[in-house]
Amino acid sequence: MPGITREEVAHLARLARLELSREELDHFAGQLDAIIGAVAAVSDVAEEDVPPTSHPLPLTNVMRPDEVRPGLTPEQALDQAPAQEQQRFKVPQILGEEQ
């Protein structure tokens, strides 16, 4: 299998908007080549009857189902607010922008 070239790494870096030095290009070319080699080794071992998985153990959704529950009214939510305006919390301006 041909190795990953500096030019291919430079192309990927441009796509990702990364600026890499010549040393980094060489370094990452070697690393990417090792990663692709490892993936190829796993692909060679994989049997046809074993489906691809993202995790070796079966996972199920452990989140509770969504249930609609009553919420606070605007008046209840703003009841203890130190300042409010037009049914909203009023906070100090932080960005220096005009309203």
From TrEMBL:
Its EC number is 6.3.5.-. It holds the Pfam family GatC. GO terms for molecular function: asparaginyl-tRNA synthase (glutamine-hydrolyzing) activity; ATP binding; glutaminyl-tRNA synthase (glutamine-hydrolyzing) activity; transferase activity. InterPro entries: Asp/Glu-ADT_sf_sub_c, GatC. It catalyses: L-glutamyl-tRNA(Gln) + L-glutamine + ATP + H2O = L-glutaminyl-tRNA(Gln) + L-glutamate + ADP + phosphate + H(+); L-aspartyl-tRNA(Asn) + L-glutamine + ATP + H2O = L-asparaginyl-tRNA(Asn) + L-glutamate + ADP + phosphate + 2 H(+). Keywords: ATP-binding, Ligase, Nucleotide-binding, Protein biosynthesis, Transferase. It is an enzyme of class 6 (ligase). Residues 47-99 are annotated as: Disordered. SUPFAM superfamilies: Glu-tRNAGln amidotransferase C subunit. GO terms for biological process: glutaminyl-tRNAGln biosynthesis via transamidation; regulation of translational fidelity; translation. The keyword Nucleotide-binding applies. It comes from the Bacteria. Gene3D superfamilies: Glu-tRNAGln amidotransferase C subunit, N-terminal domain. Heterotrimer of A, B and C subunits. Allows the formation of correctly charged Asn-tRNA(Asn) or Gln-tRNA(Gln) through the transamidation of misacylated Asp-tRNA(Asn) or Glu-tRNA(Gln) in organisms which lack either or both of asparaginyl-tRNA or glutaminyl-tRNA synthetases. The reaction takes place in the presence of glutamine and ATP through an activated phospho-Asp-tRNA(Asn) or phospho-Glu-tRNA(Gln). Belongs to the GatC family. This is Aspartyl/glutamyl-tRNA(Asn/Gln) amidotransferase subunit C.
